Amino acid sequence: MEATGAGRRMCVVGASGKLGRYMVRHALDRGWRVTGVCREQSVPKLADFGDAITVVPAATDDRAAIARAVEGCDAVLTVLVPWGVKHYASGTARAVLDHAPAGARLVFSCGWHISRDGEDVYPRGTKVYEAVVGRLAKLARVVDVDDQVAACRAVFDSDTRWTVVRGSDLEEGESQGLPVWRRHVGDPALASNRTRRVDYARFMVEAVDDASLVHEAPAIVGRLTPSALSA
Ligand SMILES: NC(=O)c1ccc[n+]([C@@H]2O[C@H](COP(=O)([O-])OP(=O)(O)OC[C@H]3O[C@@H](n4cnc5c(N)ncnc54)[C@H](OP(=O)(O)O)[C@@H]3O)[C@@H](O)[C@H]2O)c1
S-S: 13 plus which of 19, 78, 154, 160, CB 3.0-4.6 Å? Predict the structure, then answer.
């Protein structure tokens, strides 16, 4: 593996989740010095990395903790999740946008449901399903999709060097290689709507050094899925 990150520092915000841990692994494999931010109760989920990473135990919308964690970083990778109804995702995005060093590469994760320009075309039924599930989940105070939308809007409106990577449905399994991406959902190449998490994480890490992805919101799909192969 080429040590593309050697001598550089990366912060992974939301490091203890499934995607976060894959991102930490890819970053270490490429020689990055890694700091991970995760909730205090989730620190044990990073035990496998031992002393190879620095851990900042904090909620990801804790502005002081994020300021400390991103100091001196060349890249900040952030998992945006719609958990809770306390503006967790938008608070997380705001903290990263406000405190990351000027010029740092910022890469955020979210789902296909986020549309930057309204040009995405969703499979039939998806919107109705999301509206119903989103409303029920918000009532149950579990999920707030609107807040993830607000978080991404703040990123799109910022003058940082951002990329928002929009994931399809995810699955575990061996790597298929770097996912294929398109600018808009609805492109036939994305129709299979499946990506391996390990590959999503790789896309996030490699996006750091892909200048063509700055100010893009790529929608991704697994490289070996039928739709990607027939594109
Ligand atoms: N799941 C999918 O099929 C899917 C599809 C498309 C896009 N995506 C995107 O992919 C990314 C990763 O999603 P994932 O589903 O694979 O999950 P994941 O990587 O396991 O990440 C879940 C994250 O949410 C945090 N979290 C869980 N409960 C929380 C709570 N109550 N309060 C605050 N934080 C909490 C976790 O932190 P702890 O470790 O502290 O619990 C972890 O950082 C997200 O950006 C998501 O939008 C997912």
Answer: 78
Residue count of the chain, please give it: 231
**Nearest CA, atom 28, ligand 1:** 83
Kindly report the pTM of this predicted structure.
Answer: 0.95
Mutate-to-test residue for ligand 1 from 11, 16, 18, 19, highest number of ligand atoms within 8 A of CB: 19
C-beta contacts of 48-52 below 8 A and 24+ residues apart: 48/21, 49/24, 52/28
Q: Is the pLDDT of residue 54 over 90?
A: yes
CA angle 208, 213, 216 (to 5 degrees): 125
Nearest-angstrom CA–CA distance, 31 and 112 = 30
Would you say 152 and 108 are in contact if contact means Cβ atoms under 8 Å apart?
Answer: yes
Contacts 24+ apart (CB under 8 A), 136-143: 138/85, 141/84, 141/85, 142/83, 142/84, 143/82, 143/83, 143/84
Per-residue model confidence (pLDDT) at position 89: 95
- pLDDT per residue over 129-140, tens digit each? 566 566 666 666
Residues 6+ apart with CB under 8 A from 133: none
**Domains recognised in the chain with CATH numbers:** 9-229 (3.40.50.720)
